[in-house]
Design brief:
With 502 residues, the chain is an alpha/beta fold. It contains 14 helices and 23 strands. 29% of the residues lie in helices and 25% in strands. It has a ten-stranded antiparallel sheet with strand order 4-5-6-7-8-9-10-11-12-13.
Length: 502
């Protein structure tokens, strides 16, 4: 079995999760047994999996595993289905219902966001009105866990259940130095004929979980760490014959101008300090691989694309001039993406292309989004720049756009570049490590400009937006390159070679 280790799969994901989703689908397409492994307790996981068209057998969550709920049919549960005492009165609200026993408010039943009355939790109050416990319900319609609170309202205990309602995990909490709950002990109950196994917290349970996956695998196990902060240390503790690889999804050094000599990112340091423990390292770009090979000559570093395509003969390019929209940005909305510079560039473009439009897809901190919206208003771009949030169906939207822009400072290799190019969208980007020089053939299927040079960025945008012949040529070149060099089968053969898959 091939396990791709992640922290979570959320409603809004980074390129780390998207790369794992693409990979598990690729492996399964070619009949290789593979699963995404996640650590975080998440009652909405299986709803999210549906959003990204992931089947139950493609994702294995640690809590699902120990709760024996990996493959449970989904049923919709409403307040009426909870068999509340007949004497209780229910006051229905938009987000939750209040439950009364006479005049006493005894409980609240909360709903899953975006649904009509689908049960998500039930809070219980003591006779003083203090929260005493909360039952937590899974998206699939069963009670998954209970949280218990002390007199100060702080969490002191969690119990996790199997479908029979039996406790399979207990997690205890004590106050930290700030008085907030700190996990102090976790007990795994009645697992494999042992009444109790003791762990410090969920991180230590995760180490045991990975060891169990390897131990129970009838064939040799291969682990691929997608999030180094989640999985490098657990894999270092795993002293068996399983194969272990580490993807490097981020820029590896602390100094953006010195990838070879400056201190390593803290999550990657344990892996590169223990090269002999890992079978290899995986990057999305050749330029990052070259830097890592220079810095760590003994490390085996392999480049494997995170985006794969259909063969050129089986692919259809939507003509770039037939597309209704113009510019887009895809990625996190964060200061290190220098989106203020991108917005200012749009203002410069607007001076010559009055009707220019740019859509931003991605998620970000609310305070940062406020600064972007304020800048859009100050530059009088409210009709030109649109912050459209994260969209899981972005793959269906690329064909509407003509150019992708990127103003990153540094990146481990933005997936949006090859994704856009696979849809025939030329990319105009600042030069940075890593990605632009790996995917863009400057002057042929996109442009690379010096970091911070907004005037050059403006000129390149105007050059393509006002020359349909050149824009068409760039679009066709980008499309041909991605549908020739990164087809599903070609990338799969590279995985086969690395992992010894027959």
């Amino acid at each position: 079995m091939f396990y791709f280790i992640n922290e979570y799969i959320l409603g809004k994901n980074s390129s780390v999760e998207h790369a794992a989703i693409n990979r598990v689908k690729l492996f399964n397409h070619y009949k290789a047994p593979a699963q995404i492994v996640t650590k975080m307790y998440d009652r909405l996981l299986h709803q999210t999996m549906g959003t990204f068209q992931l089947a139950n057998q493609q994702v294995l969550n640690m809590f699902d595993y120990f709760q024996q709920t990996t493959d449970v049919p989904t049923k919709v549960l409403h307040t009426d289905d909870m068999h509340l005492p007949v004497e209780y009165a229910v006051e229905v609200g938009a987000n939750f219902s209040k439950i009364f026993n006479g005049d006493e408010h005894v409980s609240n039943v909360g709903f899953i966001p975006g649904t009509i009355g689908r049960v998500f939790y039930q809070e219980f109050f003591d006779n003083q009105g203090n929260l005493s416990s909360t039952d937590l319900w899974d998206w699939r319609g069963f009670k998954s866990s209970t949280q218990y609170f002390g007199q100060n309202g702080k969490l002191v205990l969690e119990r996790f259940y199997n479908l029979q309602g039996e406790t399979v995990i207990e997690q205890y909490y004590v106050p930290d130095t700030n008085g907030n709950p700190l996990a102090s002990r976790l007990i795994l109950k009645n697992y494999r004929d042992q009444a109790e196994r003791f762990f410090q917290d969920a991180n230590h349970l995760f180490r045991f979980f990975l060891a169990e996956l390897s131990h129970l695998d009838k064939q040799k196990t291969t682990f691929i760490s997608d999030r180094p902060g989640t999985s490098v240390k657990p894999l270092l503790k795993l002293q068996d014959d399983s194969h272990k690889y580490v993807t490097v999804p981020i820029y590896q050094a602390k100094d953006i101008n010195d990838p070879i000599h400056s201190p390593l990112d803290g999550f990657l340091t344990p892996a590169f300090d223990n090269l002999q423990h890992f079978d290899g390292f995986i990057t999305a770009t050749e330029s990052q691989a070259q830097h890592l090979r220079t810095r760590f000559p003994k490390a085996k570093v392999t480049v494997l694309p995170t985006v794969t395509t259909s063969p050129l003969a089986q692919s259809k390019l939507r003509p770039i001039t037939a597309r209704p929209k113009q510019l887009l940005y895809v990625g996190r909305l964060a200061p290190d993406r220098q989106l203020d510079q991108l917005i200012r560039t749009i203002a410069l473009v607007k001076q010559q292309v009055k009707e220019i439009q740019c859509d931003f897809y991605g998620y970000g901190a609310p305070e940062y989004l406020k600064t972007l919206n304020k800048l859009v208003e100050e530059l009088k771009l409210t009709n030109n720049v649109h912050l459209l949030d994260y969209h899981p169906d972005l793959e269906t939207r690329y064909d509407d756009y003509q150019l992708l822009l990127n103003t990153d400072i540094v990146d481990g290799g933005p997936m949006s570049m090859p994704e856009a190019m696979s849809h025939g969208i030329p990319v105009i980007s600042y030069r940075f490590n890593y990605g632009p020089k790996d995917w863009i053939d400057d002057g042929h299927d996109g442009f690379i400009v010096d970091p911070g040079n907004q005037l050059a960025l403006r000129d390149r945008v105007i050059e393509l937006m006002t020359d349909t012949k050149k824009l068409t040529a760039f679009s066709e070149a980008a499309f041909k390159k991605l549908h020739t060099s990164q087809t599903d089968l070609k990338v799969w053969h590279r995985w086969q070679q690395l992992l010894g898959i027959k």
